[in-house]
Write a structure and sequence with these properties.
This protein is mostly helical. It is 67% helix and 0% strand. Helix 1 packs across helix 2 and helix 3 (51-72) packs across helix 4 (85-100). The longest helix is centred in the middle third of the chain and has 22 residues, at 51-72.
């Protein structure tokens, strides 16, 4: 029996990619999260993205960055400020989804983060992202393990 794929999943993948790019930009040149949402609305990939999900990610991370960084330090082996900006953005997204989106299975969250890291992160950084988010998922979502 084939597993049914959520038709929104592709659009959410694009939303995560755009959110990662926005969060990278935000770390390099900080501005209000609302500016990021406005700026990325005109991105050519936004037509394929779940725009509401993109906004939720950017807004949620933009308003909870300090709390997310504090939480990340429970799962990572270094301080949030020492993370590469690409990986930092991906970890923000993953941790935010683990905490705030119980409708998204943790394995999907981790897989999406690893996929983004393989494409945009440093060589072998996907292993680090996988380890950190796996540890976070086992703590935050023990009922799914």
């Amino acid at each position: 029996m084939a597993t049914k794929r959520d038709p929104r999943s592709g659009a959410r993948s694009v939303a995560r990619k755009l959110a990662m790019q926005a969060l990278y930009r935000w770390q390099i040149n900080e501005s209000p999260w609302q500016d990021l949402v406005s700026e990325f609305q005109s991105d050519e990939d936004m037509a394929r993205a779940d725009a509401d999900y993109f906004r939720e990610l950017v807004q949620g991370i933009g308003t909870r960055r300090v709390a997310l960084d504090d939480a990340l330090e429970n799962y990572a082996d270094r301080k949030a400020g020492e993370l590469d900006p690409v990986e930092h953005g991906i970890l923000w997204i993953g941790l935010f989804e683990l905490e705030e989106r119980p409708d998204v299975p943790w394995r999907v969250i981790v897989n999406e983060a690893v996929t983004l890291t393989r494409k945009y992160g440093a060589t072998d950084a996907h292993k680090y992202i996988n380890a950190v988010l796996d540890k976070a998922a086992r703590t935050l979502r023990p009922h799914e393990s």
